[in-house]
Design goal:
The complex is a heterodimer of chains A (about 625) and B (about 300).
Chain A: H1 2-9, H2 24-41, E1 49-56, H3 65-77, E2 82-88, E3 91-96, H4 99-114, E4 120-127, H5 132-135, E5 143-144, H6 146-149, E6 151-158, H7 160-181, E7 193-194, E8 197-201, H8 205-218, E9 222-229, E10 232-239, H9 241-266, E11 272-276, E12 280-286, H10 291-298, E13 301-308, E14 319-324, E15 327-332, E16 337-338, E17 342-349, E18 356-362, H11 364-376, E19 381-398, E20 401-419, E21 427-430, H12 435-447, E22 454-462, H13 464-517, E23 521-522, H14 524-552, H15 557-589, H16 592-624
Parallel strand pairs in A: 5-23
Antiparallel strand pairs in A: 1-3, 1-4, 2-3, 6-12, 6-22, 7-8, 8-10, 9-10, 11-12, 13-16, 13-19, 14-15, 17-18, 18-21, 19-20
Helix pairs in contact in A: 1-15, 2-13, 3-4, 7-9, 9-12, 13-14, 13-16, 14-15, 14-16, 15-16
Chain B: H1 12-32, E1 36-37, H2 39-42, E2 44-50, H3 57-66, E3 73-77, E4 79-87, H4 98-109, E5 114-121, H5 123-151, H6 154-177, E6 181-182, H7 184-214, H8 220-252, H9 258-285, H10 290-297
Parallel strand pairs in B: 1-6
Antiparallel strand pairs in B: 2-4, 2-5, 3-4
Helix pairs in contact in B: 1-6, 5-6, 5-7, 6-7, 6-9, 7-8, 7-9, 8-9
Chain lengths: ~625, ~300
């Protein structure tokens, strides 16, 4: 251990070197690290500009100068000053002077671009002002967490019960088909699905056993057991845990994709959408102020169904009745196509009447089906159903404990009935919706349907003004706390205090540099962590100085300095290890704000050990090393 | 830097009684009144709104009541233009939009009103966070205790662990007694207190151990007193600088960070006190003697000189 200390501290082990001096390379190394620290910490000093980010939705289209001129003309007309513009591939950035200009500018630009008929997303953005020479090093400022930037955080829970129930219903249909195709008679007209299990009853055991062989050949997802069902020989098909996981994974990934598309549509510049655990999804939308609007779009489980209006001779079991404009319309149960087959959807206005409409493009399979069905039904009516799931909760008593259960209410609304005039193809229009509905429907169809409904289980919205206030107060705490410590150290330790203060400043710079390089997000608890680190980082220096002072009673000044640093080393290591432990535990178990604090604390411990042990030593060596000291004042 | 010569151990009985009473009050309050958990842990809805002019909390409460929000808690927050509105979890309504409804209602009455923050935590998430928080605290304590056992031997580890538990219980107890809100940030602070408290104890205990070997004469009382005095300068300076920055946080950091700062301030005081009067006192109670250190420490002599 002491040899390690020797190496780390650069204790003079040979007689050749003067006491308390580092070899040149060591000074250079420390200088190099500090320089790197300064470079990577610097970008945080440059305040970002408020900016508008315009991007095109169609994948192959590069930003044209036309878009830029349209946008800037509109902004100038509205009296909004433009600071700068830049174009890169599919993005156009327009910098403006204030957040007020930014918000107003977005509406102005959106309106101006909507008139061009193309689809553009206009997002609020913070454009970096880091100078090019710093960017050349890859240096960039820390990003702010939602509590500093303002914005919305959602935690969504995917309804797995529903995802599994949907899957079981599909499998039930498949099983009935397979059994029918193999002419295996089962007891009809009973509900087969019971949670994660399907029960099938047969008339005799021979058929049951044959059915088992057939099903086992076709299915891997079920554990199949021969059991009595309703007093008859039957089969229990239980979904295996592996398959349940697969369904969950699929539901989460499908919803993730759809959420990402939706978030894109909302025009958020740097959103975060990621899964958490088995059934949850985190969505962070920096800069978004209207959480109600975001919620409406994100969590909407809406879809379309195209169906034929039933002929008078249709069997009642194959039809469904919906009210429409005061009368009842009988529809076929079967869909022609659903919203899943939509490749693009745009909200437009009917050129004749000026009412909102949605123009829809179908994919190949959907278009073919639509064409075939409508070709055979010219003169008949087709209906469009708008289907929506609304989240609800209820309290259930489970094992004597109140548990909140989520469930959804399905609402189907007939929005349009029209006579088929000719065979339809891949492109057609839907009318009969309000403007808001049309816009949302177009967006949801574009973004893709959710695989299973979701519930918001946590939401945190921070207003822009509170975020700015948090930054101000946080920064003020750092500056004031830091200054107080510097003054105190100067007064209490004089010359050595100066060395400690330099080390402390370097520590702060390094801490910020490391956080920036790691791409850590700065949060309010993170700022608190920085402040706390500043206060506690002094400890290492204090331990060293008090040790030197004690050693002075028995040794010469040079020997006391050497012994002081050497002996304090293990104590410093020891004292920091415990706090480091706690920081790591916080990092592992903690969520959101706690994590921000933990990261700062952990990095702060490492940087403060470096600066106190190597940095302070280098300064002390430079000042006192290599000369004969008669007296040393601490 | 001065040299001190206090007879710390003279007051050890009084200090033990003080600690005992503080612990008892803390445990009783925690057991019967419990912590005043914040929204993070209880679940529910919270909206912080800013008005352009002074606003009376009760007026808004009546306004909410008339609209059917019967159990809303409305209070001024920080300034008299800011309000904090809390609504507990309620079944049968779409929880997630409760905050939106309240905002819409208040905006109708005062269009200039600004939503500063709006939070909703579902009951399941709240319960999970409570569980995780408890787990985090236990794991942190457990890991640190393991480290102590590996780091110290016998009586020293008992002293350090006692000091640690003493600090955490009293910090939590203060939050229970004064009904301060215990949220995630405070939890982080309490965990940091665990680290800080131990940090102090280690420095003091190391010095005691070193002095037991160095001082050929003198009983345990004398050795401990001498060690405490030798480390006192460092203890005071470190605690003082930490307090300086924490005070800066408390005064300038704003409402959201207040609980965090308070928890750490308590932790610094209690942690400093406990390394003197709990950890060291425990050594006295356990009857530490020079012989306790000689045998197991001989081969580690090289390492243990801090």
């Amino acid at each position: 251990m002491s040899s390690m200390a020797e190496r780390l501290l650069g204790m003079s082990s040979g007689p050749a070197r003067a006491p308390n001096s580092y070899p040149m390379w060591r000074y250079l190394m420390i200088l190099g690290i500090v320089t790197l620290g300064v470079i990577y910490a610097l970008p945080n000093l440059f305040q970002p500009d408020y900016a508008l980010q315009i991007r095109s939705d169609s994948a192959d289209e590069a930003m044209t100068p036309m878009v830029l001129s349209t946008a800037t003309a509109a902004l100038t007309e509205a009296g909004i000053a433009i600071r700068a513009t830049e174009t890169n591939e599919r993005n156009l950035i327009i910098r403006v002077n204030s957040d007020v200009d930014q918000l107003r500018g977005r509406e102005v630009v959106q309106t101006a671009l909507a008139a061009t008929g193309e689809d553009y997303v206009v997002a609020l953005n913070l454009a970096s002002t880091t100078p090019a020479w710093l960017q050349a090093f890859g240096a960039k400022p820390m990003s702010y967490g939602l509590d500093l930037s303002g914005g919305v955080h959602f935690l969504l829970e995917v309804d797995m019960d529903k995802a599994i129930a949907d899957r079981m219903a599909t499998e039930e249909d498949n099983l009935r088909r397979i059994l029918r195709e193999n002419r295996l008679r089962y007891v009809p007209s009973r509900d087969w699905v019971d949670g994660k299990r399907i029960d099938i009853a047969f008339y005799d055991e021979a058929v049951r056993d044959e059915a088992r062989t057939v099903i086992e050949k076709e299915y891997e997802e079920f554990r199949i057991q021969a059991r009595d069902v309703d007093g008859r020989p039957g089969l229990w098909l239980t979904l295996t845990e592996l398959r349940v996981r697969e369904i969950e994974k699929y539901a989460v990934s499908q919803n993730l994709q759809s959420l990402r598309n939706r978030v894109d549509e909302l025009g958020v510049s740097e959103p975060l959408v990621q899964s958490l655990g088995r059934s949850r999804i985190v969505v962070d939308l920096p800069g978004v102020q209207d959480s109600a609007d975001a919620k409406r779009i994100l969590n909407k489980f809406a879809n379309l169904e195209f169906r034929l209006v039933a002929r008078p001779d249709a069997r009642p079991s194959e039809t469904e009745i919906f009210p429409y404009e005061g009368r009842d319309i009988v529809l076929e149960r079967r869909n022609i196509v659903t919203g899943d087959r939509v490749t693009n959807a745009l909200q437009e206005y009917d050129p004749d009447t000026g009412t909102p409409q949605v123009s829809i493009n179908l994919d190949g399979v959907g278009g073919d089906r639509m064409h075939d069905v409508t070709r055979d039904n010219v003169g008949n009516d087709m209906a469009i159903l708008f289907k929506e799931l609304r989240p609800r909760t209820r309290i259930v008593i489970e094992d004597g404990v109140e548990v909140v259960k989520h469930f959804s209410v399905e609402e189907k609304r007939l929005i349009n009935v029209a006579t088929i005039r000719s065979a339809l193809g891949y492109r057609f229009r839907i009318t009969g919706l309000g403007l808001g509905e049309a816009r949302d429907l177009a967006l949801l169809l574009r973004a893709g349907a959710l695989a299973a409904p979701m519930y918001i289980v946590e939401e945190r919205t921070v207003g822009a003004s509170l975020g700015a206030e948090n930054i101000d107060q946080g920064m003020r705490s750092i500056v004031i706390g830091f200054s107080l410590v510097l003054v105190f150290m100067m007064v209490y330790y004089k010359g050595f205090g100066l060395a400690a203060n330099v080390a402390l400043t370097v520590n702060l710079v390094l801490l910020i540099a490391v956080m920036s390089v790691l791409g850590a997000t700065l949060t309010l608890p993170g700022i608190a962590g920085i402040v706390l680190t500043v206060g506690m980082a002094v400890d290492a220096n204090v331990l060293i100085f008090s040790r030197i002072k004690e050693e002075l009673a028995e040794r010469s000044p040079q020997a006391a300095i050497e012994a002081g640093f050497d002996r304090a080393f293990l104590t410093i290591l020891d004292a920091n290890v415990t706090t480091f432990f706690v920081a790591i535990i916080l990092l592992a178990i903690g969520t959101g704000p706690v994590k921000g604090f933990a990261i700062t604390l952990a990095i702060g411990i490492v940087t403060s050990m470096f600066t106190a042990i190597l940095g302070t030593r280098a300064i002390v060596n430079l000042v006192y090393g290599g000369r004969s000291l008669k007296k040393l004042v601490i | 830097m001065k040299t001190f010569n206090f007879d710390f151990m003279r007051w050890r009985l009084a200090a033990s009684m003080g600690s005992g009473v503080a612990l008892l009050v803390s445990v009783v309050t925690l057991a019967f009144a419990g912590l005043n958990f914040g929204l993070d842990f209880t679940g529910g809805t919270l909206v912080e709104v800013g008005y352009p002019k002074t606003v009376v909390a009760n007026d808004v409460r009546v306004q909410l009541e008339n609209a059917g929000f019967n159990n809303a808690v409305v209070q001024n927050f920080g300034t008299d233009t800011d309000l904090l509105i809390r609504v507990p979890s309620r079944p049968e309504v779409d929880q997630a939009t409760l905050g939106d409804q309240i905002q819409a209602l208040l905006r109708e009455a005062e269009p200039e009103m600004e939503v500063r923050r709006s939070e909703f935590v579902g009951p399941a998430v709240g319960a999970e966070l409570r569980e995780t928080a408890g787990l985090a605290m236990l794991v942190a304590l457990g890991a640190v205790m393991l480290y102590i056992m590996f780091r110290f031997t016998g009586k020293f580890s008992i002293g350090a662990v006692t000091a640690l538990i003493h600090d955490v219980i009293i910090t939590l107890g203060m939050f229970a007694i004064f009904r301060w809100t215990f949220d995630l940030a405070v939890l982080a602070a309490v965990l940091a207190v665990i680290g800080y408290s131990l940090n102090d104890t280690i420095v003091v205990s190391d010095r005691i151990r070193e002095n037991f070997r160095k001082m050929r004469r003198g009983g345990a009382m004398e050795v401990i007193n001498r060690s405490l005095n030798q480390t006192l300068g460092r203890t005071v300076v470190t605690s003082f600088t930490t307090l300086l920055v924490l005070l800066a946080l408390l005064i300038f950091g704003g409402e959201l960070i207040r609980g965090f700062a308070i928890a750490l301030i308590i932790g610094v005081f209690v942690g400093t006190y406990s390394s003197i009067y709990v950890a060291s006192n425990m050594l006295m109670v356990l009857g530490i003697r020079r012989e306790d250190l000689v045998v197991p420490e001989r081969e580690r002599l090289q390492d243990d000189v801090p």
